[in-house]
Amino acid sequence: MKSVNRRDFLKLSGTTLIGMTLGGVALRANAQEHLSEEDATAKALKYTNKSTVEGSQCANCMYIQGDAGAEWRPCAIFPGKQVNKNGWCSAWVKKPG
After folding, report:
1. pLDDT digits over 54-71, tens only?
2. Which of 1, 57, 63, 65 has CA atoms 20 to 30 A from the CA of 97?
């Protein structure tokens, strides 16, 4: 397992806290723009539209919101943006259940 340095941990923690405090309803209402891999937060969290990590995709991450059938969905990590259901970032956490 790869260790996370202090700076990356603080970025991830801050981003997660901001995303989680917005709530699912606000995310669904405000998320309209597709997340670009060139976005500063996306780069910091190594976001990609196509996961290269077996079994780990945005679609099965606990932070994804919205309609399970949609290709692009809101994510608590990236407020105001939609992520590709086949994507991945370093904040990925397996959805319970």
Report:
1. 999 999 999 999 999 999
2. 1
Partners of residue 84 on adjacent β-strands: 72
Q: What is the pTM of this model?
A: 0.68
What is the tally of helices (H) and strands (E) in the chain?
Answer: 3, 3
Task: Give the pLDDT confidence of 31-54 residue by residue, as tens digits.
Answer: 589 999 999 999 999 999 999 999
The answer to whether 31 and 82 are in contact (CB under 8 A) is yes
CA 8 to mean position of chain CA atoms: 15
The 3-state DSSP class for residue 17 equals helix
Contact 78, 12 (CB under 8 A): no
What phi, psi does 18 have (nearest 5°)?
Answer: -60, -45
Q: In angstroms, rounded to a whole number, what is the distance separating the alpha carbons of residues 3 and 37?
A: 23
Residue ranges and CATH numbers for the domains of the chain are: 6-84 (4.10.490.10)
